[in-house]
From TrEMBL:
Name of the protein this chain belongs to: Outer membrane protein TolC
Gene Ontology, cellular component aspect: cell outer membrane; efflux pump complex
Superkingdom of the organism of origin: Bacteria
GO molecular-function terms, A-Z: efflux transmembrane transporter activity; porin activity
Main location: membrane
UniProt keyword annotations, A-Z: Cell outer membrane, Membrane, Transmembrane, Transmembrane beta strand, Transport
Family: Belongs to the outer membrane factor (OMF) (TC 1.B.17) family.
Subcellular location: Cell outer membrane
Protein's organism: Salinimicrobium marinum
Length: 434
C-alpha cells in the first residue's frame, strides 16, 4: 500500500468512525427527548479531542514517520564514483595515463527492494492501526467522562429537588404545629435532613471541578472551560440478546496481523539478502599523447565496462536474519491470540455490566413508583392525624437514594455501551430489558 493510499484510508476511516456508519461514538442522535441537543455537543467534543489531544498527535506522527521508511528501503544503494590521478604517469602503448574515473552501481538480487518496501509499508499500516486504536480509545475516555458529568448533573438535580420538597414538608409541619396537631420536633428534624442534603449538594459541586478538569484535559483545552451536559439521556428499547462477535476488524488485531505480514516479508528480505549482488560500472581513463613516436589512436582515452558480483559466503548472518523474522512471526501469532482472548474476556465483562445496569434501572424505577405510593399514603395520614412525620422523612430520603442510584445506573449503562462498542467496533445501540 503506497503513501497516498494509506492517506486515503486514514481520511476514509476517520469519516467512517466519526459519523457512525458502523463506527464509534456518534450515538446521541439515537437518543430520545433531550438527546438531540447533546448530540452536537458530544460530537464537537470528540472532534476537538481528535484534533487536539497530544496522544493522538503523537500516534499520528509515528504513523507519518513510518510512511517515510518505504521510500528509503526501496531505493538502490548510492552509486560509487572513484577518481584517480597519477602522481607518476603510467605509460601505455597509446600514451601516459593521466586520470581514471570509475563509476559503479550495485544491484541487489531480484525482488529484494520490493520485499523491503512491502515490509516497510506493512509496518506503516500497523502504525496506522495503532493510531486508530489510540484515537478510538480516546473517544471512549471522552465519552466515559461525559457520562460521569451527566451522572453528577442528575444527582445535583435530584438533591436540589429534594431540598425544595423538604422545605414544603417543613411548611406542612409548621402548619400542623400551629393547628395544634403536630410537634415542633418535626420541624427541627426537617431542618436536620435539609442540612444533610445541602452538604451532599456542596460535595457534589466540589466533585464537579475535577471531573470537568479531567474532561477538558482529554480535549487538551483550558481546564476551566464549561462543559455542556444534557438534562436527560433516554435509553432506546432494544433486544437484550448479544450475538457472538468477531474481533478481526479491531485495530489492535489488524495491527498485529500487519506486523505478522511484515515479518514474513522481512524473512523474504533476509533470504534475498543472502543472494549475490551484481554491480555494473564503467571505467574511463584519460590518456595523453605520446611524443616520442607516432602510433595509431595516439592519446585515445580508454573506456572499460565493469561487472562485479558479491560473494555472500559468510552465511551465518543471513540465516540468523531469517530465524529472527521467523521468531517474530511466531511472536506476533501469539500476540494476536492474546489480544483476541483479552478482547473476548473484556467483552463478556462489559456485557455483564450492561445487563447489571439494565436490571438495576428496572429495579430502581419500580422501587421509586412503590415509594411514591407509600409516601403519598403516609403524607395523607400525617395531614389527618399529625403523627408519623419521621416516617415521611425516612421514605423521602429512601426515595432520593433510589433516584441517585438511577443516575449511577444510567452512567454505568451508557459507559458500558461505550466500552462495548470500542471493543467490537460497532455503532452504538442503546438497549434495555423493559
Amino acid at each position: 500500500m503506497k503513501r497516498n493510499k494509506l492517506k486515503g484510508l486514514l481520511k476514509e476511516t476517520f469519516t467512517f468512525h466519526l459519523w457512525g456508519l458502523g463506527g464509534f461514538f456518534f450515538f446521541l442522535p439515537l437518543l430520545g427527548v433531550g438527546g438531540s441537543a447533546a448530540a452536537q455537543n458530544l460530537e464537537d467534543y470528540l472532534m476537538i479531542a481528535a484534533e487536539n489531544n497530544p496522544g493522538i498527535q503523537a500516534a499520528y506522527a509515528e504513523f507519518e514517520a513510518a510512511l517515510q521508511q518505504a521510500p528509503q528501503v526501496k531505493s538502490l544503494p548510492d552509486p560509487t564514483l572513484t577518481v584517480s590521478a597519477f602522481g607518476r604517469m603510467v605509460e601505455t602503448r597509446l600514451g601516459p595515463q593521466e586520470a581514471r574515473f570509475s563509476l559503479m552501481q550495485m544491484f541487489p538480487w531480484f525482488g529484494t527492494l520490493s520485499a523491503k518496501e512491502d515490509a516497510a509499508t506493512l509496518m506503516a499500516e500497523a502504525r496506522f492501526q495503532a493510531y486508530l486504536d489510540t484515537r478510538n480509545e480516546l473517544f471512549y475516555k471522552v465519552s466515559e467522562q461525559f457520562f460521569k458529568l451527566y451522572e453528577l448533573e442528575k444527582q445535583l438535580q435530584f438533591q436540589n429537588d429534594n431540598v425544595m420538597i423538604l422545605q414544603n414538608y417543613k411548611d406542612l409541619a409548621l402548619a400542623q404545629v400551629r393547628s395544634g396537631n403536630g410537634a415542633m420536633a418535626d420541624v427541627l428534624q426537617t431542618d436536620l435532613v435539609v442540612e444533610e442534603t445541602l452538604t451532599a449538594t456542596e460535595i457534589l459541586e466540589l466533585q464537579k471541578r475535577p471531573l470537568q478538569t479531567q474532561f477538558n484535559v482529554l480535549l487538551n483545552r483550558d481546564k476551566e472551560t464549561a462543559v455542556a451536559i444534557p438534562d436527560t439521556l433516554e435509553v432506546i428499547p432494544g433486544s437484550s440478546e448479544f450475538e457472538p462477535v468477531s474481533f478481526e476488524e479491531h485495530p489492535r488485531i489488524v495491527e498485529v496481523e500487519k506486523r505478522l505480514s511484515a515479518a514474513r516479508s522481512q524473512e523474504e528480505v533476509a533470504r534475498k539478502e543472502g543472494m549475490p549482488k551484481v554491480g555494473l560500472g564503467i571505467d574511463y581513463v584519460i590518456i595523453g599523447e605520446r611524443m616520442d613516436m607516432a602510433v595509431d589512436n595516439n592519446g585515445q582515452d580508454a573506456v572499460m565496462p565493469m561487472l562485479s558480483v558479491s560473494l555472500p559466503i559468510f552465511r551465518k548472518k543471513y540465516k540468523a536474519a531469517q530465524k529472527e523474522a521467523q521468531f517474530m512471526q511466531e511472536s506476533y501469532a501469539h500476540q494476536k491470540e492474546e489480544v483476541e482472548n483479552a478482547l473476548s474476556s473484556e467483552y463478556e465483562s462489559v456485557i455483564f455490566e450492561i445487563e447489571k445496569s439494565q436490571k438495576m434501572l428496572k429495579l430502581n424505577r419500580r422501587q421509586i413508583e412503590n415509594m411514591d405510593r407509600i409516601l403519598n399514603l403516609q403524607l395523607s395520614s400525617y395531614r389527618g392525624e399529625g403523627s408519623g412525620f419521621e416516617e415521611v422523612l425516612r421514605i423521602r430520603q429512601e426515595l432520593l437514594r433510589y433516584q441517585l442510584e438511577i443516575a449511577g445506573a444510567e452512567k454505568e449503562y451508557f459507559t458500558a455501551i461505550a466500552r462495548k462498542n470500542y471493543i467490537t467496533g460497532n455503532s452504538f445501540e442503546y438497549e434495555n430489558q423493559e
